[in-house]
Amino acid sequence: MEMNAKGRKTGETVAAGIRRRIATGDLQIGDRLPTEEELTESFGIARTTLREGLRILESQGLIEIKRGRGGGAIVTMPDLDRLAEPLAVMLQLRRTTSADLDEARRLIEPQLASWLAKNHTEDDLAALRAAVGAATAAADTNDREAFGFAAGQMHSTIIERGGNNTLSVISQLLHKLVIDRYTTAAMYSDQALMRRAARSYWKLVDLITDGDAERASTHWEQQMAWVLAESEDRLLDVYEGRAETPPR
Q: What is the helix (H) or strand (E) element at residue 188, kind and residue range?
């Protein structure tokens, strides 16, 4: 038992060492780790201890271990879905409400929209216009499923391109926790509401294009508040049996 505990502790030390090399850029995404022989020699450890460290990194999504001939450990970017799952459990254990999550998102996303207005590229604007274009097309054809996806992409684009990596990652995690709720609400929406939302998206793009950071932030906060209120109403209708079954 003592050897196993010691092995795990050493394995964690090995994992921390490799993790630092990834964080500092010494190892890039897509790079193959040195061979087991090279790593065991470098760390001065047994093969079993090294493999324990690699399993830790694999569980964290930092490496992918390919088996068989030509295999090995390759550095990967952790999947946000994997990170969102333990966050969701932690929030559930803390009895976090949907309103609490929504309030956090409303504190972050408008700020990202503001920063995007201050400092954006043509690629940023093109990505926003593509998302809004998809939402507009879905609204015009009354395609609820496509609109729900496009609306999610609108949020994702703002989050990913807002210019602050820390808030971006946090906001992406929160967005993943609530996206299913809004997709469901979109399925029970109507064409007038979808068209109203699409017009609001275009207004935000105009404000960002003009560099109007204050109005972009205010507009997106108001848009989120309206969508959240509408979503709650729609979902309440669903739960209480007042909503009609959406068309397939």
A: none
